[in-house]
Structures are given as C-alpha cells and as structure tokens.
Amino acid sequence: MDLPNYLRKKRGKLELKKGKKWITWNPYHSKLAAYLLGSGENWPFTRESKVLYLGAAEGNTVNFLSNICIEGRIIAIDISRISMIELVTLAEKKRNIIPFLGDAHFPEKYRNHAGNPDILYQDIAQADQVNIFVRNYKYFKPKYGFLMIKSHSISGKESEVYSETKKILKQNFDVVKVTNISKWAKGHNAYYIE
Ligand SMILES: C[S@@+](CC[C@H](N)C(=O)[O-])C[C@H]1O[C@@H](n2cnc3c(N)ncnc32)[C@H](O)[C@@H]1O
Is CB count within 10 Å lower at the N or C end of the chain? Predict the structure, then answer.
C-alpha cells in the first residue's frame, strides 16, 4: 500500500505531517504505526472518520489519530482511572477527542458517546479480547475494524492463539487480514476486519 501523503517512513520509523513539520510516530509505542511499518495493506482513516477506540490508555495512538481524523472524532474508552487523567488532559487540548471512563465489555454504556463510528479500533490486553471486539463490532456495526491481539494475554501457544483468533474472526466477518507486528510489539498481531 502507498502511504497517504501525510505519512512517510524514515530511518525505520514512521513520520506524520503536522502543519509544516514531520513528527515521529514511534512503532514501539503505537501498534497502529507498527501495522503500517509491518506492511499493513488497509488504511480506511480519513479526515472525517469517526473512530471508536477501545483501550485508549493515556492517548498516545489516539493523539495521532486525532491529527489524521481532523474533522472527525475519536471516542476514546479506557477502564483505568489513572490513564484517564492524562487522556482527559489531552482531550482538553484537542477538539475531536471524547474520553470515556468505562469497561469495553459493556458497549451500551458508551453508546451515546460513540454514536455511529466508521471504524472500531481495539488494543486491550485481556483474555477475552477477541470476544470484546466481536461484541462491540456487532453492536456498533462500523465499516472497518482493527484488532491488536496480545497473544500472551490469552492462554495457549502463540501460534494456536493466532489461529483461533483468525478462526473466530472469519466466522464473524467477511474480510479478515492479518499483519505480524511482533518486530515492534512483542507477541502481537494486527487484524484488519470488514
Ligand atoms: C496496551 S494498553 C493500550 C495502549 C494504547 N492503545 C496506545 O496505543 O497508546 C491497553 C489498555 O487497555 C485498557 N483496558 C484493559 N481492559 C479494559 C476494558 N475491559 N475496557 C476498557 N479498557 C481496558 C487498559 O487500562 C490499558 O490502558
């Protein structure tokens, strides 16, 4: 995939154009940057995209997405009160981030905030992370999804976790594409869904 003109690869890292400057998007800190460097083939994010982001943490990747989806919005969910403090501080500086303290097991709780997202993005290291993703996707019915799987959070051998994840996703979605991002995020695969 050709990168959009606001992204470029430089010295093994990714850079994002912000105004006239290029800022580093570190793949070791963001699995979405790792996905692009790992030759991920799908990039549905546009200026207007509405993204429901599960597992926002302090907002590192959310911040980059807010620069990309400049006229859209990022609804950023996290269960951690400590992470939420930084996320709220970030949201105060950006006009398109909506932080929400909540548990991704319960999509009905953030339904009013999320509205109709175009893209579901999930990065949650939990044993039932695949089920959380499927539940949210079916609930909100976005067009596209990204699931970052941490194999070590699920019991079993890494290869078995990945094949079981693919099996469940294929049972539920028409398009499932896998990108290995373990070079930057140990024990992780990225799944693109339609
Ligand atoms: C690996 S971190 C996310 C990093 C972030 N995506 C980034 O790129 O900057 C995983 C996050 O998932 C959150 N989390 C874990 N279980 C959750 C749940 N059930 N609902 C919402 N967030 C959860 C954790 O609090 C943690 O902040």
Answer: N
